[in-house]
Design brief:
Blueprint (H helix, E strand, L loop, with lengths): L2 E4 L8 H17 L7 H7 L5 H12 L9 H21 L9 H10 L3 E6 L3 H12 L7 E6 L11 H12 L7 E5 L2 H9 L3 E4 L15 E2 L8 H12 L1
Parallel strand pairs: 1-2, 1-4, 2-3, 4-5, 5-6
Bound molecules: xylulose-1,5-bisphosphate and magnesium ion (MG).
Magnesium ion binds next to loops.
Amino acid sequence: MKAIIFDVDGTLAETERDGHRVAFNLAFAEVGLDWDWDVDLYGELLAVTGGKERIRYYVERYRPEVAQRLDFDALVKTLHETKTRHYVRLVADGALPLRPGVRALIDAARAAGLTLAIATTTTPENVTALLRAALGPEAESWFAVIGAGDIVPKKKPAPDIYLWVLERLASLGIPAADCVAIEDSANGLKSALAAGLATLVTPGIYTAGEDFSGACAVLPSLDGLTLNSIETYVSDQKV
Ligand code: XBP
Ligand code: MG
């Protein structure tokens, strides 16, 4: 193993329920919409990755009249920019701690000279805010490649974001066969597997109970996970 590619939302931190969801609701209120994404509804909406895509899906399903507005595309854009502003502030205020074991694993990987990367569907500013707030002001520089948001047209479960990251890792001399992905969701797992990656899954509050077939391991958390045990999970799956 030469590199670990981390998903962000749900994997590094439980960002969805108390971060993204709250920020979406603050944006709706700010723009004058009475929409309220409660905890259960948000769980359903998470089937669609990407915030803008999620808003569109919600409108299609629950507010079809809004899609007829001439300014609908502009509304989605404004809502999402407003949501991102709220999310970044929530994160900077320290609202979203790392999941157990994340910090230790990142520290161990860095100490062992592994390359770190990120593959996520979330907006780049959100990644920067989380890394800085939860890991430290320099943390962004610990990741050799950060693939995020609209940098690829098709979000997870499509493999595109992982393939984008793998192309950059390959140019650093690291082939996909030497990389391991860590994910929290079935959509993320599908994306990583379709890109040909060995993948560990640590389900979170919204993704427990999803289908993780194809993962080399499904772990309740990353707490206590060593680099050696990751290598063992990967090589056990290959035999
Ligand atoms: C999580 C997502 C994101 C966030 C919202 O993806 O699907 O869309 O919920 O972020 P991952 P944006 O687990 O791959 O990080 O609103 O910035 O899209
Ligand atoms: Mg995730």
